[in-house]
Amino acid sequence: GGMIWSADGKSMLVKCAEQGRANLKRIDSRTGAVTALTTGDQDVMQYSASADTRTLVALISTPTVLGDLHALEASTGKTTRLSSFNDQLFGGLNLTAPADVWYTTFDGKKIHALVQRPPDFEAGKKYPLILNIHGGPHSAYGYTFFHEMQWMAAKGYVVLYPNPRGSTSYGQDFANIIQYHYPGDDAKDLLIGVDEMVKRGWADPARLAVTGGSGGGVLTNWIVTQDQRFKAAASQRSIADW
Q1: Is the peptide bond before 164 cis (omega within 30 degrees of 0)?
Q2: pTM for the full model?
């Protein structure tokens, strides 16, 4: 990981997170121009380069692949998968990618959320929903393998995991807006996401639950004092008394 200089010193490679995706970018050391080396709904977790920096090896995860090694040509970004550690195990599982959802919150901002639906999801059928809130609060959910979401969905739940204000990978202003205002408006972003799931007909408004860990546990604690829609709440590893 970290910054990797090209052998000629004309550019550097670095991982960047954008809207929940983590990919490698090339930065021209003279002009500052940024170009993508890798793209897609994925998480480049770790990476290193050969001595001549022509070849990289990267550990890449997606919502349905836990993490495999890939060889990358530094000049073109051409990717070759090197390992398939879990193909046999995952071949017996019904894993699906999350839905990509954007919605407008109370003050006009656009909020991005991922929604893991049951693998046998049927349009027109309403499912119990779990709102799953990330910690930090300066972090983000993304396109990586997430056992927790897959497991909940396999049990028949629609799992909504949004990136409300305060989340990273949507710009500095979006992340910093919650300074001295946490929890609060971020909770509104989350609840409007639940409204969106009900409006789309995916969630049964009579069967809603909320959970989250760390900063997500703080928001769980906050939300159940502000809103009465949830039938169950599980606050994980959180601060309950400031």
Answers
A1: no
A2: 0.94
**83 residue type, one letter:** S
Q: Is there a contact between 186 and 195 (Cβ–Cβ < 8 Å)?
A: no
Question: What tokens were used for 4?
Answer: 């990797």
**pLDDT tens-place string over residues 181-220:** 999 999 999 999 999 999 999 999 999 999 999 999 999 9
Cα of 82 vs its chain's centroid, Å: 25
Judge if the upstream peptide bond of residue 137 is cis by omega within 30 degrees of 0: yes
What are 146-188's pLDDT values in tens digits? Answer: 999 999 999 999 999 999 999 999 999 999 999 999 999 999 9
CA angle in degrees (0–180, nearest 5) for 64-66-67 = 120
Closest CA to 56 of 4, 109, 98, 21: 4
**For residue 77, what pLDDT band results from cuts at 50, 70 and 90?**
confident
- The one-character DSSP state at 97 is P
Q: How far apart are the first and last CA of the chain?
A: 36
Q: What is the dihedral of CA 167, 171, 176, 177, to 10 degrees?
A: -90
CB 223 within 8 A of CB 190: yes
Structure token digits, residue 55 = 């070849």
